[in-house]
Specification:
Two copies of one chain form a homodimer. By secondary structure, chain A is of the alpha+beta class. Helix content of chain A is 41%, strand content 17%. Chain A is built from ten helices and eight strands. Chain A is globular, with a radius of gyration of 20 Å. Chain B binds a DNA duplex through helix 3. Chains A, B: May be an activator protein for the gylABX operon.
Chain lengths: 287, 287
DNA sequence: CGATTTTGTTCAGAGATGTGAACGGGGGTT
DNA sequence: AACCCCCGTTCACATCTCTGAACAAAATCG
């Protein structure tokens, strides 16, 4: 079991308490409650209390109060037979509110299915969170092809076409800040493993208006992605199609083959999806 | 804007602090964080900080710390242009973990679509949460019919066929506890409006193994629902089909028409969905 | 463009929460 | 069946959070 690397970091440096460990003036119980949810979300089989304790380094007596609140409110439930805590129905319900905001649940599906039928390839929609892309929706090709991605899952943005499109849209300064001190994970020899090269690739993506992934995460898988812009021009997501490299053909013109259909679909999706800023912008609380 | 009635209540009566307002020894910030999420989940357009404050009765200075934690962790984000807080992507991500646990995302859809094709009516899957049924999945009929329900939404269980099936499965004592002091909302003349009658109906449902809803929530809408049992026989959800009363016909044999198909599908779904207890069981923390 | 109202931030005292150690209870094991 | 081990619970003290009012900063309005 791996604990996710600290995904988000506040820019605020104000510190009240003095000792400061991490949160910098943050509210301990609030933080912990969310950490527990984060942790449990990654564990389909749930976690026993002692496992949560050791994963998050919480004292025994502190954890129980938190778990009781989470259980009482339905965000977590305990499977009594195995004494394991799992994500509860209330967490799901709250999450649905997000996809309703973005119209993902009802409106986006049919449009994406059309594109899938047009291309007969797997089609995906993702947004950026930190340095990961997060899959909002997916319509599988009818051809047999299993992707490791899936709705609600995340992959490192620098390894996917979707991710590169989304990263390319960030202001340079923001991009550098997010990349500062980060080591880009490599999954095979084609993965972009260093920041300078990533920045060069992103510049190309920005100019071309689309990104490719030629087996950079999964060997043998080729993807093309384009940004999804709302009517105001803001990038609200990215749209991709994925296929075995063999089916994509070779040479520099294989990506452009898919662009017209992808772009047409992206335009429709952009009109559907509410014009919301990148989640990360939540930091700008203090102005 | 209405605030949901306190949905869950712990059975624990232990009380540490003494003053007790509500939570009885609960952790204030933890509770508040979840309350904020609950509140924002119901507001597609988000809420400004003062609105959150008045809705939850929080002091000005307390709210900001909580919101900062929620924003930093991505559970909430602030739309800077309108200064409104909304449910964030992380909340969605965590919620997806729940539907993955129950296999709702990937496996349940195709099976339900088959049933829809068989019956050519809208098919829905729901679980119980307190006295509400919560829609996990839905496959629309191809005939024009708009239901007020939808994935992630909840309706009072006593007004729907799904809800009645789910309530009927509760042990009598648990049922009485949940109904204690509750006034059953009425939506039209057919809605079951008093507890004794509800208990009688539920007894019939228990015996028959299915429930009907003949316009009790939406006038003119007829539904039939059956329990979804896992291989061990535990009810893990309920499955229904809905149609305009006109199409259902009249007389006592209209529901049985749908039962064979519904039950066959429910059996398949039960095998797919992990054997998880009712969310409410989370209360049994103390053993 | 300036005044006004509303919102966000800061601060120190009051009060509730977090902590660690000891107790009680189950479950698994031999 | 009894033991042992581990988990969950309880408690009082130290600590950190919550609070309310005053201040500062926007946003709105005329």
């Amino acid at each position: 079991m791996t604990i996710l690397p600290e995904p988000r970091r506040t820019t605020h440096s104000a510190n009240r308490g003095g000792t400061a460990g991490d949160g910098a003036g943050s509210i301990k119980s609030a933080e912990r409650v969310l950490r527990i949810l984060d942790l449990l979300a990654g564990q389909p089989d749930g976690l026993a209390a002692p496992e949560i304790r050791s994963a998050l380094g919480l004292p025994k007596s502190s954890l129980h109060g938190l778990l009781r609140v989470l259980c009482d409110r339905g965000y977590v439930f305990i499977d009594a037979r195995v004494r394991r805590y799992r994500i509860g129905i209330r967490a799901w319900e709250v999450g649905q509110a997000y996809s309703r905001i973005r119209n993902v649940a009802v409106l986006v599906g049919p449009v994406m299915r059309e594109l899938r039928d047009q291309l007969n390839e797997t089609v995906q929609l993702a947004v950026l969170d930190g340095l990961d892309n997060l899959y909002l929706a997916k319509v599988d090709s009818e051809q047999p092809l299993r992707l490791v991605s899936g709705v609600g899952l995340r992959l490192p943005a620098h390894t996917t076409a979707l991710g590169k499109v989304l990263l390319a849209d960030l202001p340079t300064e923001e991009l550098r800040r997010r990349l500062a001190g980060v080591t880009l994970a490599r999954f095979n020899s084609r993965t972009i493993g260093d920041t300078p090269r990533l920045l060069r690739v992103l510049a190309e993506v920005r100019q071309a208006g689309y990104a490719e992934d030629d087996g950079e995460y999964t060997v043998g898988l080729f993807c093309v992605a384009v940004p999804v812009r709302d009517p105001a021009g803001t990038v609200v997501a990215a749209l991709s199609c994925s296929m075995p490299s063999a089916r994509a053909g070779v040479g520099p013109e294989r990506a452009p083959n898919f662009l017209p259909a992808l772009r047409a679909c992206a335009t429709r999706l952009g009109a559907l999806m509410a014009p919301l800023p990148d989640p990360q912008d939540g930091l700008a609380l203090g102005g």
